[in-house]
Amino acid sequence: MDWLWFIIAGLTSGVIAGMGMGGGTLLIPILTIFLSVEQRIAQGINLLAFIPAAIVAIIIHAKNKLISFKVGIPFIIGGVILAIVGALIALRLPNDILKRIFGVFLLIVGIWQIVFTICNSKDKSKVVFSKISLNKYN
């Protein structure tokens, strides 16, 4: 029955990854917290699952002309180099330290998303109200 939970975790993170929001931020905690997978193995599974999800997402977003390859190339080059460095560092860190680093990373990303959402929602509400009032009087 454990395989069912692994399939559900994979499907959930695949949907999130397909939307371009980073399925690993969901998959790794699910694997480590709920399915008792070691942090290094969860990260490896995430990387393996990321490849087909990324390919499908790239194809779909490219067909919809939502990707600027000219802008993306420098990110790809930097990402590959730093992924190698990060993987080498992760192999040398104890599992407990790796878990804490990932937890801090998720906390920072979560706080940043909350602040970003609050800041953008204030701006969008002003825009929406001004559009509504303009539409009523024009």
Using brief descriptors, characterize the structure shown.
single chain; 138 residues; 5 helices; 0% strand; disordered C terminus
Describe the overall structure.
The structure is a single chain. With 138 residues, the protein is an all-alpha fold. It has two domains: 2-92, no CATH class; 99-138. Helix content is 87%, strand content 0%. The chain has helices spanning 2-18, 24-34, 39-63, 69-92, 95-137. α1 (2-18) packs across α3 (39-63) and α2 packs antiparallel against α3 (39-63). The radius of gyration is 19 Å and the shape is globular. The protein starts with a helix and ends with a helix. Mean pLDDT is 83; it is low at 127-138.
What general outline do the C-alpha atoms trace? globular
Number of helices: 5
> What is the total tally of β strands?
0
* Helicity level: over 70%
List the helices and strands and how they pair.
Elements: H1 2-18, H2 24-34, H3 39-63, H4 69-92, H5 95-137
Helix pairs in contact: 1-2, 1-3, 2-3
Short description:
The chain has helices at residues 2-18, 24-34, 39-63, 69-92, 95-137. The chain has 138 residues and is mainly α.
